[in-house]
Every structure is written in C-alpha cells, then in structure tokens.
Amino acid sequence: MTTESPAPPEVTPPGDMQTAGAAASKSKRKRVPYLLLLPGGLWLIMFYLIPMIQLAGVSLQEGSFEAGYEFTWAWRNYTDAFAAFGGHFVRSILYAGTATLLALLIGYPLAYGIAFRGGRYRNLLLILVLMPFLTPFLLRTLAWKVILADSGWVVGVLQSIGIIAENGRLLATGWAVVAGITYNFLAFMTLPIYVSLEKIDPSLIEAAQDLYSNPRTAFRKVTLPLSRAGIVAGTLLTLIPASGDFVNAQLLGNPRQLMIGNVIDSRFLRIVDYPTAAALSFTLMVAILLIVIPYVRAVGTEDLVA
Amino acid sequence: MPEPETRDQAGGSREPLAVALSGVTKRFGEVVAVDDITLEIGENRFYALLGPSGCGKTTTLRMIGGFEDPDSGSIRLHGEDVTGLKPYQRPVNTVFQSYALFPHLNIFENVAFGLRRKKVPSVEVTQRVREMLDLVQLVGMEKRKPGQLSGGQRQRVALARALINHPRVLLLDEPLGALDLKLRKEMQIELKRIQNEVGITFVHVTHDQEEAMTMADTIAVMNEGRIERLGGPTEIYEDPRSAFVAGFLGASNLMEGRIEGSGVALEDGSAISLPADRLAGYDAQVHIGVRPEKMSLTAPETVPAGVNSIGATVVDVSFIGVSTHYLLRTSWGADLVVVVQNLDDERHAAGSSVAATWQSQHTFVVS
User: Fold this and answer.
1) Residue B336 Cα distances to B291, B351, B359, angstroms
2) The domain containing residue A16 runs over which residues?
C-alpha cells in the first residue's frame, strides 16, 4: 500500500513527531496482511510442514525398531517399497479413480436435481445427502458389509438378472471396495457441484434456449461449463482421500484387494517399519500430485470467473 | 391537436401481423396472470406492453418467447401458429431483464452463440459479429468477458446477441431497468435508432410510462392481466378512457359530473363541453378528466369565450423553475392541480379566486 492515508489517531504522536508517526503507521499497515496470515501460517508450519520434513527424514532412514533407526540417505527405501508394493499403488489409483468417476456420475445428477428441481425441498434434500455423515465412518462401511452380503438382496437380484454368476459374490471383490468408497465420498462430490449449480442464474439457460439450443445443447454449452469449478473441487475432494483410504478395502475386500493405505497402515502400526511406511506415504503423495496437477491445468478454473 | 393514427390493428389493414395473440390466458395456480388477451402487432413496429408489476406484461412476453405455455388461446408469428413450440424453435429472440450474458464466454462468443447453434460457417460468424458489434458500438470489446463491462455495455451485448440472429420479432423484458437515469435516456434513443436501422418488430415490456412513450409507436397498457388501453402514445395520453390508464400515464384531474345535452354538468352547474364521441356508451353519471398542464389560470372575470372553465380558490403555489404548480379547491371541495409554464409574470397568490380554463378537446371521460 503506497497511498498516503491519514493515520489512525492512536498511533499518531503529537507535534514534531508527525512525519515519523505517519511513516510508522505506513509500515504498520504493510505488516497487517502478514499479521493476519500468521495464525494460519503457524498452523501450517507446526502441523504440516514440520511433520512433512520429519516424514521425509524418516523415509531415508535405515535400521530396525529394536536397534533404532539412523539417517543414511537410504534412497533404497523408495525403490524397495515400490518394487514390493507397486501393485497396491496401481490398485489404489484404479479403485479411487473408478470410485471418483462413479461418484461423479451419481453426484452430478443428484446435485442437479436438488439445485434445479428441488424447489422448496432443496434444504431438506441437502440434509438427506449429509445425513449418513451423522453415523460414524466405520459403522457406515460395516453396513455395506450387510448390504453386499452373499445372502443379501443385492447379490440375489444381481444373480437373478445374470449380472453376477449363480455362485458369484460381491463382498471381498474389488467392486465392493469401489462401492464402499463411492458411497463414503459421495457427499464430497455432491456438495461442491451443488454449490456451483445453485449459483447459475436460470435465465442463462433460458437465454441459451432462446438462442436455438435444445435442452441438451443448453446443458452442454452453459450449465456444464458453469459447473466446472464444482466438478473439479468434487473430484479432488473424492480422489485424493480415496487414494489413501484403507477402511473400505479392509472391511469390504479381502487381502487381494488391499490398497496402499492398508500397507502404510500396517507398516506404521503393526510391522513398525517406519522408513518404508514413510517412503510409501511420500510416493503416494507424489503420485497424486502427478495426477492432479495436469488435471487441474487441463480443466483449470481460473478463467471461469471474469 | 391532431392525433396521429398509429393503431396498427385497424380493420382492413393489409400489413402482415408480426405477432397475433388470440384469447390467450395464463394461470399460475389460483392467480390469473394473463386474462383472455387478444393482441395484434404489425410488422416493423416498436410496441410497448406497459403496466405496473404483476399486471401480466412479462408473462405475455414470455408466452410469445415460448418460456411459458398459455393455458388457452393461440399465438401466431407471421401467420404461423407457434403455440406450444419451444423457445429454440421460434423465430424470436429475447433481451432479458438481467441481460443473462454467458459469464464463461467472451463478448464475441456471447454474440455468436445463436449463429453457432445454427451451424453458420465460421467466416460468416466472424463477419456478422463484427457488423453487429459495430451497430451497438462495441467494436474492440470482443475478447472481454461480460464481467468486465459496464451495465450499459452489457445491455448492448445482450441486444447484439439477440439481433444477430435476424429474429422476426425481438422481445425486450425491461431492458433498461438496471441502468441509471442518464444511461437509460441514452439507451432509449439508441434502441429507437437501432429499431429503425434493422427494421425488426420490437416488443418491449416496461413499467416506465415515460420510457414507453419515448420509444414505442404503439402502447398496450395492461392491468390485472388485461389490456386496458391500446394506441399511440399521444392518443392514449390524451384520451386514456379509464381512471387506471389516466393515472398510470401521468397526473390528471378527475371530476364527477352528469351528462347534459352534448356536454357534462359539474356539481356547481358549470357546463363542460367535450368531443361528442367521448361520451358514447355512457349515461347520466360520468367522470371527466383533464391533464394538469392542459389547464391555464385566469382571473374569474377574464375567462375567454369558447373554453371550459371552473371557478376555484388557490390553496397552494409551488414554483418548480420550468413551471409553477397550483393546488386549487373548487366550490364543492374537489382538489385540482394545474401546471402553468412560467411564460409571464402573472402569479396567482394563495387565497385568490381564479378560473381554471381548458380547451374542450382536452376533456376526456373515464370509466
């Protein structure tokens, strides 16, 4: 801020100190934005940056829990971890990606329906979307164990219409894990899309129809581009945590469907192999960034709002 | 003053009708928004639907555009029945009240939107967009987003986006409502110029009687879902025919009287003469009206012959600058407002007795 503006009275010293006071208040003004950033910045440093550096350090250590770990620039941890658990990585990305796509296919029409057809029931419908979150994550996932059980009606129906084999099952398959993830992250997909759809002025859609767009073209040319920000936010909020999820694979899958989250979980807490766990965490983070950055650049939201 | 004949639906007219509504009714639940309207709009007209909010004017416009379907009645555009057709199937375009420009597209693509949907070749699109931006004086703004334009510029983009499609009829829904007074005046003239230039029928919805009278050559005054009065601006101002229209189009002095011979006798017995056809269809009791600016004031003893006059007492005088407003009270206690141009120095002080006089053709009758 370079414009000369009157200093607040409490910082203006009397008499010949006037100019010094103005200068002091000017520099104080300059500091204000940084002061406002301080609490959030401290939070990030304390609970994000420092643990990250620590984790990076651990990922390059060698040794064992009993003998203690030592920092040795052990890059080998990364290659070893990837060699051993590469399949888990691929599976995690695949499951999380499929679940994100399914959540988008379910969440977009859901958000669209609430935003444009919800009328006075809009808020009620939104609460219904959020309702499952009132029960704990673990219980919700366990409930899916019942829904997808071999003797359950879902399996029965799918068997009778021939989608799965006579003796086929859902539980302990990749589809069960994907279904669980989709369900658990659906609200994270639906809500941002709803917010972006809800902001669209209905007269824009009328204008598109007035300019010779049938409802499908109007959707493609106006509604969809204007809800892009919501789609980007929703897919990121689903894809990123879903890639690291381990609860769904553990409860709805079998050992063959374990995801990278399960491996990290057991390395940290059961096998107590901190360096491998840390190396896996870092690799996962980098992998997600490598997917997300091109995605955000391709569908980027920066030029959406003029 | 001779009245220009601007009625476009006069029988025997050979002009093709741009828009014809017949017996159109629209209900929203219990509310009858548009009540059995029959309306004919000629080719190349600037037509205004004027009325207070909730009078059904916007609903009427939306039915012409295809955004609402009438519950009964039919809508024809250039003789072709379009009732029930979707907006994108109709040869009309709309300038929306809030402009409804696409925020994610730049000005060029906003204007080109309709042509793109019609798969017009890209070279032609470029050329027509340039012509259109030239017409609305927005050349050089192609790359901007709607959010970077001022209200008046957005208004022009909305107009260009609709006109580029060469619609048979252009619908304008309170297009100037969001602009400030000065800009509104400019755009009124601008719109009129553009209408002259493109020669397309404009149907313009507004609640601003001055706007309607400035731009339109035919005005339909609407009230409670019906058309109360239809005609050219001068015609409906001079002879509004209903108290609602008289009040909506400006101030007027309404007085009760009874028919006597070919004129009307007021409560104090003064005989008022008026054009004979204005009394057709009335018997005994009537209300007559006179616009405040049509009256002039003289001393009671110098009333010229051949004009209507009422004796009254001046209650209040306010000097406005261009004119002086007098509040008068008649002998039977009715209030009259008279607006006098400040042409001479003659002033009538409060408390003095005066005669309010006016030409007989300035008397109208309201139901």
Assistant:
1) 10, 14, 16
2) 9-58
Residues in chain B within 8 Å Cβ distance of A214: 86, 88
**pTM over 0.95, yes/no:** no
How far apart (Å, rounded) are the C-alpha atoms in residues B85 and B69? 9
Residue A270 lies in a domain: yes
One domain for residues B222 and B316: no
CATH at residue B335? 2.40.50.100
Q: Considering CB atoms only, which of A206, A213, A304 is closest to B67? A: A206
Q: What is the helix (H) or strand (E) element at residue B355, kind and residue range?
A: strand B353-358
CA distances from B352 to A197, B113, B313 (A): 68, 67, 6
How far away is chain B from the Cα of A202, in angstroms, using its nearest Cα? 9
Q: Which of A110, A304, A108, A115 is nearest to A198 (CA)?
A: A115
Mean pLDDT across the stretch A203-219? Answer: 95
Q: Where are the alpha helices (DSSP H) in chain A?
A: 18-44, 50-58, 76-112, 122-130, 137-147, 153-160, 174-198, 202-210, 215-218, 224-226, 228-243, 247-252, 260-269, 274-299
pLDDT at A72: 87
Residue where a domain stops, chosen among B226, B243, B260? B243
Kindly state whether A119 is in contact with chain B, defined as any CB-CB distance less than 8 angstroms: no
ipTM of the complex: 0.82
